[in-house]
Amino acid sequence: MLAGSELRKEHKDVKRAGWEGQKExxxxxxxxxxxxxSKTSDLNxxxxxxxPLLHSEDCWYRPPSWLSDRHVHTIFASKAxxxxxxxxxxxxxxxxxxxxxxxxIVKRESKNEEDALDKPGTSLGNKWILLIxxxxxxxxxxxxxxxxxxxxxxxxxxxxxxxxxxxxxxISSPRLFSAYRGSVEDMxxxxxxxxxxxxxxxxxxxxxxxxxxxxxxxxxxxxxxxFAGSQGEYPYWERIDAAAAxxxxxxxxx
Length: 254
Description:
Elements lengths: L24 E4 L5 E4 L4 H9 L19 H11 L7 E7 L5 E7 L6 H6 L8 E6 L9 H12 L3 E6 L20 H23 L5 E7 H13 L11 E5 L8
Parallel strand pairs: 5-6, 5-7, 7-8
Antiparallel strand pairs: 1-2, 3-4, 4-6
């Protein structure tokens, strides 16, 4: 379910298996970390104890019969769902290899919002969610805007990480979007920026610690789970406090 240094052990000797989970499945990344899934692992059993709803089929989404085909479902959603219009402040973050990633921060509907985002020391809120879109996705996709809007209505500040070349961002490095290699480092940069900017503002106001969560879809979910599993090796300002993965591919090779 998660990935990380604690699960690296002898990953080369672990046999791959299907979704049935009767054997362990590891998808190692370049650094040795990878997405991990096993029904029999102690970690998964502990998680499932605390989430009894996952044992019930009633809690899982069931599409209507006319949308049971996954391709039709995807096409229908992309065409029929419009999503709310949002305003963003775009921040371009430079990567160590010369690339650029675009971080779009959702602006609240307030006449003072420009000051809140641009004036040092002004509160930006201490509850943040970083959204990681799926393959090729970005801040203008309807599913991303819908989630960002819902989170905003529930009191969260929202930032959207457009991976390299996505969301109308420039391409300045040989590497593009990759859920398999490198993107975890780009996510670290985004988390560090949020903690730095929002944390400085909250510290100046004496309003306490900034909490950062992450939510990813599809390949973005794979990046998110890899990040969550390996962040024990990161300094505090590059870590997240919570993570959610939607439609996560557990094996990017097979």
